[in-house]
Design a protein that fits this description.
The chain has 116 residues and is an all-alpha fold. It is built from 5 helices and no strands. Helix 1 (2-14) packs parallel to helix 4 and helix 3 (29-71) runs antiparallel to helix 4 (79-106). The radius of gyration is 20 Å and the shape is rod-shaped.
């Protein structure tokens, strides 16, 4: 969660001048929010795909080594845990986008463009 928030915040901060230029040439607030949200969504989806794939492989191997070997219980896909992870990551993305977008929209376009 902290990585998602930090990545979005740093990405927006690094491109503040470009966002100011886009606003100066006619990008409205809704388009800016969608653009930053799409970037955050890309981070989240790619992280979920890689994280869930690797997590399931490691979970299965460890489960078989520890639980199945000693207790005989069969491994099953932990759908409930995966659903919680997806919901938490999506909530983190929504929260991560809110503050940087608000910061950009509160600044005058001229201040955003002249910011280093």
């Amino acid at each position: 969660i902290l990585n998602i928030v930090n990545s979005i915040s740093m990405s927006v901060s690094a491109r503040m001048k470009q966002y100011g230029i886009l606003r100066a040439i006619g990008m409205d607030d809704a388009q800016l929010k969608r653009m930053i949200s799409a970037e955050a969504g890309t981070y989240a989806v790619s992280g979920l795909v890689v994280g869930i794939a690797l997590g399931l492989v490691l979970n299965r191997k460890l489960y078989i080594l520890i639980i199945t070997h000693y207790f005989g219980a069969a491994w099953q896909v932990p759908w409930g845990c995966l659903a919680v992870i997806v919901v938490v990551v999506l909530a983190a993305v929504v929260l991560a986008v809110y503050n940087p977008v608000r910061r950009i929209l509160m600044q005058p376009i001229t201040a955003t463009i002249s910011e280093l």
